[in-house]
Amino acid sequence: MPPPSDPVVLRVLPSMNVRTLYLKVAKSFKVPKAAQASMKLWLRMPDDHLAEINRDDTHDLDWWGVENDAEMFVFIEQT
Question: Of 8, 19, 47, 61, whose CB count within 10 A is highest?
Answer without folding.
Answer: 61
